[in-house]
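tmp note - DinB family protein
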Amino acid sequence: MLNSQLEILAQGHAYLESVTKEDYSQIVAPNFISSAGSHMRHIIDHYQSLMTGFGINNIDYDSRLRGSNIESNPCEAIKKIAEIASWIEQLSTDDFNKPLLLSSEVSIKSKNVQTVTTSLARELIFVGSHAVHHYAMISQITFAQKASFDQNFGLAPSTATFLREKSQQSQLKSLQS
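out:
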């Protein structure tokens, strides 16, 4: 599980190394209402909320740094990705089932915060999946900017497995023909 998290972060790092500051902060209107940088900041905020919450046994993904310089500066995002990767590298499998509280607002009409019990393993799965989802959004923004990008960026692990299996089936059929 830890290696998969590092792989997910490595995808983000590779994107950040390749994007210009201008493309990173551009909002491609009218198709999008946010920049690739705001998506990356959002991803980083979730990982940082998990890191903080793990330390105090209470995760709050609603407490985020909206509008920080991570949204406009890929170099700052790279630094944060490195900090997150370092934190993940020091985790052990013994940490996975540590009970944690998760607090989250659940209503858009009024403030309604619910608290549930969770675990580090479950939340790592969530932030990883959440990151891949936002990578997919970033890849669409990048495509709209006409920039070249890795076609596997933002591809969900289950989709990658489906495509590999489909390719293998096609190869088998062509051998049988």
